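Long-time lurker. I teach an intro course on protein structure, and each term I like to show students one example going from raw sequence to a predicted 3D structure in token notation. This year I'd like something fresh instead of my usual example. Would anyone be willing to generate the tokens for the chain below so I can use it in lecture? Attribution to the forum is fine with me.
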Amino acid sequence: MDKKIAFVASPTTEAEEACKLLKQRYPNVEPGDADILVALGGDGFMLETLHRNISKGQPIYGMNRGTVGFLLNGYCEDDLLERLDNAHEEKLRPLHMQVTTDSGVQQEAYAFNEVSLLRQTRQAANIEVSIDGKVRIECLTCDGCLVATPAGSTAYNLSAHGPILPIGSGVLALTPISAFRPRRWQGAVLRQDAQITLRVLDHYKRPVSAVADAHEVRNIAQVDISVATNKHATLLFDPDHNLEERILNEQFIP
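-- Reply from a regular --
Happy to contribute to a lecture. Here you go:
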């Protein structure tokens, strides 16, 4: 193992203590000088690390010092260099969210898990759904809806009863959140190259926010969502516990 390693940790006692122990045990450099980042924390911290390094291209090997740890490997202080040598790569392409607010301001953000639209008040949202320029639902009345990647399909998407998508399947999940009309619409599975437009109807009366992972934009009028083909992040996983296997296992959990 001749690659330079940097350790980064979430601001929790458990993660920071683990980071201190690993730095004492293994040669390490500052994150900007590293070939590989070892991230210590939970899934939220892993998403933060992915976003911070989206333009740097450093592979990230996560070890769980949080709660669920779906995007991370198990924590162990031993044999880290060997684990890094044997790790499998998984390239993740994020969603690109282009937002137009009700005042005409445009913003963009990226999401490795999902882009979600959420009602801001007690009133349900009314959303027009278009795919590749064609209106598919004139008015979806709901608490919101989301577009999930395969990596994010077991997170918020699964809680909203969306489908689990295998890694490498080349598809996205479009999932309603508490849909009232059309009452029986349960969502759609779309090709990865689909251009998705979600237009908020009555946006002054029924305001809606858009969230790309943890980045929120409020009072939106329209959101355009597509896969960012020019960006990717690389995650490293132990061979016996890779992301593809984890997502497959989720489909058989009772």
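Some talking points for your students: The chain has a mean pLDDT of 94. The domain at 5-92+232-250 is CATH 3.40.50.10330 (Rossmann fold).
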